[in-house]
């Protein structure tokens, strides 16, 4: 399994390779997790989209076509049936996206929309 240290090292490397300020990224993630301003591909700079792709590549969770491989993900973190369903739903929606940075971002946005952060009570009204 992946140690937190490795993951944070990947984050650091992906931040640097995409020339991203971690404070700006944090701000973006915080904004995205507040309901009214969900992650929106149209107002997100390309380097942030590529950051997510960079992480996925380093985590080695992509298949030969550059799409998320649910089984590889399951090896890193055991997925509940529910999470697996969410992943497959998002994959069905986005696996045809040709650009790998757009794809990574779309998948993150899709998953953040369907996954309850704590997976406890989902009180958000859509």
Percentage of residues in strands? under 5%
Helix content: 55-70%
Helix and strand content put the structural class at mainly alpha
Residue stretches low in confidence (pLDDT < 50, at least 5 long) are: 119-126
Mean pLDDT: 83
Distance N to C terminus? 35 Å
The largest pleated sheet is described as:
none
User: How many alpha or pi helices?
Assistant: 6
Q: Element order, helices and strands? A: HHHHHH
User: What would the principal axes of the Cα set say about the shape?
Assistant: globular
Key terms:
126 residues; 60% helix; mainly alpha; disordered C terminus
Overview of this protein structure:
The chain is mostly helical and 126 residues long. It is built from 6 helices and no strands. Helix 1 runs antiparallel to helix 3, helix 3 packs across helix 6 and helix 5 (81-94) packs across helix 6 (100-114).
List strands and helices in order, with pairings:
Blueprint: H1 4-17, H2 22-33, H3 46-59, H4 70-76, H5 81-94, H6 100-114
Helix pairs in contact: 1-3, 3-6, 5-6
Could you give a quick summary of the protein structure above?
With 126 residues, the protein is an all-alpha fold. The chain has helices spanning 4-17, 22-33, 46-59, 70-76, 81-94, 100-114.
